Amino acid sequence: MLTPVTLRGSLVSLEPMSIDHVPDLCSAGSEDRSTYGYTNVPDGADETKRYVEGALQSLEKGRALPFAVRHLETGRIVGTTRFLDLEVFSWPPPWPPGVATGPSPSDENPPTVAEIGSTWFASSVQRSGVNTECKLLMLAHAFDSWHTVRVTLKTDARNERSRSAIQRLGAAFEGVRRAHVPASDGGIRNTAYYSILAEEWPAVRTNLLARLHRA
């Protein structure tokens, strides 16, 4: 199992999510919800508790590493994000291909590939540099500490706001997976996929640092 870590920057601190974060996440999600049309953001205390419990179950199973995002200037919890879809490649590859992966991710066997997702923020900190620094901290951990070879980011194909934010990171568009999963609005979601490779990380890091400097 991967040991939960705290990732700290100048604007935010990403804390390992715990059940104690439920009230603060509930408060963060209760601000203006008009930007959450395509995003799964819990509404109210009961939904937030189930949301956190689900994230912690994924942590226990080695499938995710969830964070609560603390805004350092105010001290408030302002949202959440996580690593998910963590996979360790098996070397040499198994035969036939695709029937098995390597060991579960752990400190001794860090993820070969990862995804950053399940990200949402209170409306009061959107477009403030918070998301940019969260991505910088997480990508640095993935590429510099785990030596991950690919980080995936994905979103509802209709979510132009989210797609623009991902593209501004410098991620490459891979395509749209049709009829992928249930959508947050009750329909069936087509999912837009993006990725950053290890060799692209230095340029992405330079871009993110420049954007933070301008924020």
Automatic annotation (TrEMBL):
Its EC number is 2.-.-.-. GO terms for molecular function: transferase activity. Residues 14-171 form the N-acetyltransferase domain. It is an enzyme of class 2 (transferase). Pfam families: Acetyltransf_3. It comes from the Bacteria. Keywords: Transferase. SUPFAM superfamilies: Acyl-CoA N-acyltransferases (Nat). Transmembrane segments: none annotated. This is GNAT family protein.
